[in-house]
Amino acid sequence: MTACALAQSKCHKHTLDPQLLTVSDFLALVIFRYLSRQILGTMLAVTFVLLLIFMSGRFIKYLAQAASGTLSPDVLFAIMGYRLPGFLELILPLGLFIGLLLSYGRMYLESEMTVLHACAYSERRLMLHTLAISLFVALCVAALSLYVTPWGMNKVEKIFEDQSRLTEFEMLLPGRFQSLSSGQRVTYTERLSDDKRTMYGVFISEESENQVQILRAHSGTQHIDATSGQRFLVLHNGVRYLGRPGYADDQVTRFDTYGLVIDNGVAEARKIKDEAIPTAALWGDESPKARALLQWRISIPLLVPIVTLFALSFSRVNPRQGRFVHLFPAMMFYVIYLGLLIVLRKKIEDQKVPEWLGLWVVHSVFLLAGLLLRYKVPLGLWFGRRFRAAPSEVTS
Questions:
Q1: How far apart are the C-alpha atoms of 335 and 326, rounded to whole Å?
Q2: What is the Cα–Cα distance from 312 to 113, expressed in whole angstroms?
Q3: In the sheet where 185-192 sits, what is the strand order?
Q4: 51, 113, 165, 360: which is deepest, by most CB within 10 A?
Q5: CB-based contacts of 161: which residues, under 8 Å, 6+ apart?
Q6: 145 vs 373: CA distance, rounded Å
Q7: What whole-number distance in Å separates Cα of residue 93 and Cα of residue 47?
Q8: From CA 275, how far away is CA 266, in angstroms rounded?
Q9: Which residues of the chain have pLDDT under 70?
Q10: Checking DSSP bridges between strand 185-192 and strand 178-180, what pairing results, if any?
């Protein structure tokens, strides 16, 4: 059942008060709800697929860091959760753009748009309803870009700072050779106790001053000196091999207990990423980098209504052309639009483009292009009438 038929059936089921709502307004409301379900449903499906693609690549990177012992596996999902708003602010505009192309393309292909126009649902009303939906998405993107994403990135930076304080013992994973202490020590343990305080089946290889020290022990525990606070790894029931490569002067020592110094974790001096800077701090910062970043955060939600205008034009397809014929040129337009914003942001940071011109010139050009593309037929008819009227005025 099309949106028009659905609206007409509801009109017969409900008694309308002409002072409150006309039949035309009721039809428009039902059609708006129908369009909203079509667009937002497709947008969410596209966004979910794109989110899986982008987040899986980032998750694999963090997983590799956890496997190498530089990141604790316990914080992986927390990091991905805090990074989620940053992915969404870029994916939602693209999801809406593709959602509009697919939804309206299907409706043109199945002649639903023809039926809607036959029910006095004009192109102007279609554009206003579509822009209302895009405005809702733009507000969500603005909240993500201006507030939620910087907050999430701050949390991520805090997690990485806490991870840099962890000691070698706390970063060990059972069943893996892990390079610690700037690559000079390689540690392996067969398993850890449930409280992760005791290691079993310990192997340690350490290089220092052209000597190689290899330790094998049945178990190992962490000990903290009460006076100095220094941490030690105390090995129990093992063997120590000490020698130099190429020389036959190896020393073999069996021990009941043997202590190794564990470097205390020191927080790394991490450079704060641009995404983690709060938006409120950018307003008072006059540096070119801060001004470019502020314009970028405002530009992401502005992108949404402008690409909506293009989607309305690109989604018009001939039923004989197929449903996806318009996707390639539409996607090329989106890539060019976003690419120009990225390039111009870098130019503003490098002071090669004045701040007052900024990213607004790109939005202005594409907004004008979108309006011209949307109204090219009415404009062509208007200019045609003007040129046809000109000769008659001359002859008179």
A1: 15
A2: 12
A3: 178-180, 185-192, 198-208, 211-224, 231-243, 251-262
A4: 113
A5: 267, 268, 270
A6: 29
A7: 9
A8: 24
A9: 1-24, 68-69, 165-171, 180-183, 229, 263-272, 319, 321-323, 376-396
A10: antiparallel
